[in-house]
Amino acid sequence: MTPGDENGARSLAGTSLAGTSLAGTGVSPGAGYGPAHVLAGEIPEPDKEARHDGDAAAERARAERAVEEVAADLEARGARAGGEAQEVLGAQALMARDPSLAAEVGELIERGVAAPRAVFDAFGKYRDLLAAAGGYLAERVTDLDDIRDRVIAVLTGLPMPGVPARADEPFVLVAKDLAPADTALLSKDVVAAFVTEQGGPTSHTAILARSMGVPAVVGCAGATAIAPGTSVLVDGASGQVLLAPDPARVAAARAAEEARRAVLSAATGPGATADGHPVPLLANIGGPRDLDSALANGAEGVGLYRTEFLFLDRETAPSASEQEEAYRAVFEAFPQGRVVVRTLDSGADKPLAFLPPPEEEPNPALGERGLRMFRRYPEIMTAQLGALARAAAGVSAEVQVMAPMVATVEEAEWFADACRTAGLDGAGIMIEVPSAALRAADLIRVAGFFSIGTNDLTQYALAADRQVSAVAGLQDPWHPAVLDLIATAASAASAAGKGCGVCGEAAADPVLACVLVGMGITSLSMGAPALPWVRAALSRHTLAQCRDAAAAARSGTSARAAKAAAHAELPGLGALAL
User: Which residues form the PEP-utilising enzyme mobile domain (predicted)?
Assistant: First the structure.
């Protein structure tokens, strides 16, 4: 059955499933096997004609209590989960408490509308606005729907949406899409794999699956038609979802997984190619709470410290001392390593409650975000750079600071000057905009180093919103055009004797990691669970093989051709051939 065969999908539950295969986008490597748990039980739409008893003040108070109960529950789930899940759920709680939504709900209740229907209609209005905005904001539609359903469940006494926290055996969680609250408290002991019909490589499901080290496939059409309890084998790399596989197929998958794990265990120490070319392997983190995972997976430092998570989900900006404490905790965790800090990357899908909302932007991904927002509020920039300089004083880690979303030489010069004023030398920039990659030779004369954000670079190069499932096929860093942009930036940095790392999701692909090194990338940073996979892949190939693979990939005319060509040049992949 093909991914778009909806009639076939609807008939899955009533046919022989043995050997049936569905296809999606693999976003977290590994093999997962277990019975399907299909997330259902959606909250029904409240009656359109429902009215309250006339006491608008009491009904409004009831709605406010329900919203606060849901927001507090999301925060509590995040606190128990920690890591990236806590940041995501904190942002969702902030969305639930949005004053504009509360005002809209209150206005409808004043007109006599019952609280459940008022919540549904108010959230629906904002849902439509987010969906129409596209870009990062469109990704928030799933979050908003989840909050809405949870609030309505509280108001109506219906069971809260969610997944089982315990099971007799690990299951494959199947859903149309997964809200962060659905996955935050799950563990590898409970869930064998994720499969969703919607979502892309950078959706919340993908991010959380990778942080958990659980195989996942997204954008898999027809998945929710799988009958509950059907045995499912998920390949989180290829994107294949096999229903009712025969025992031999399951045994082969398990054997391959064991072989992969053996290879991972054998690769230890600093990142390097088989012939000793060093490639520092670093972790992407959101704050001190992510340090345990980074250290456990052998991170040599931090290649992307996402400082915006310190600013989100709060009514006031973090104090200078609070910032300094958070930064220093990370610096001290890597006394001999490198820590690359990305300055505040707000805007688009990461609004700050303590700043005035930006003017309406038809496409927020192309609006005021990253460095552009930083320049608009210099007091926020001055406070952060000052806190970073004080935190870096006296530590032995190599602290580097970089700016997101730099598009011009003038922007790079402005940021470098601001960093020098704060006492931070050698400021770098992220290469996320095609103009920056194309004019990298000019930018490197100003910047101390480059760090390539492949997620944004890919979406801008191919005009494919990374949050839209319909164009997920284009959101592929293997595309030769993206590889060319990366190679251009790496070549410019090398010619100037400066470093050029990659901190996007592309670095977590073991095969693509080898290609990136072959193009001159000097360090790789990724979610911590991917570090052993990349370390093992590099250790099995020489620098010359990586260069040959890079040349072969760039000669392709499509992402698929580029990937196939690279595989052909890397025979040492063995058990790591994902």
Answer: 169-239
Contact 526, 512 (CB under 8 A): no
Q: State yes or no: pLDDT of 367 exceeds 60.
A: yes
Annotated active-site positions, please?
Answer: 204, 503
Residues pairing with 38 in the sheet: 174
Which backbone phi and psi does 499 adopt, to 5 degrees?
-80, 155
**pTM of the predicted model as reported, rounded to 2 decimal places:** 0.71
The tokens describing 529, both together, are: 């669970």
**Contact between residue 32 and residue 209 where contact means Cβ atoms under 8 Å apart:** no
Average pLDDT, the chain: 85
Using CA atoms, how far residue 190 sits from 33, 41, 187, 212, 247, in Å, is: 12, 20, 5, 11, 22
H, E, C per residue of 531-567: HHHHHHHHHCCCHHHHHHHHHHHHCCCCHHHHHHHHH
Predicted confidence (pLDDT) at residue 44 exceeds the cutoff of 90: no
Amino acid residing at 436: A
CB atoms < 10 A from the CB of 2, how many? Answer: 11
Count other C-beta atoms under 10 Å from residue 414's C-beta: 17
Decide: helix, strand or coil at residue 339.
strand
Q: What is the C-alpha to C-alpha distance for residues 195 and 205, in angstroms, rounded to an integer?
A: 9
Q: How confident is the model at residue 576 (pLDDT cuts 50, 70, 90)?
A: low
Residue that the structure tokens 């293997």 belong to:
478
| pLDDT tens readout for residues 90-130 | 777 888 888 888 999 999 999 999 999 999 999 888 777 66
Task: Give the C-alpha separation, 555 to 559, whole Å.
Answer: 11
User: Counting Cβ atoms within 10 Å, is residue 112 exposed (0-12), middle (13-18) or buried (19+)?
Assistant: middle
Phi, psi dihedrals of residue 38, rounded to the nearest 5°: -90, 115
* In 267-377, alpha helices (H): 291-296, 320-333, 371-376
Is the distance from CB of 132 to CB of 181 less than 8 angstroms? no
Question: Quick check: 14 pLDDT over 50?
Answer: no
Token pair for residue 183? 């996955």
What is the CA angle 65-67-73, rounded to 5?
100
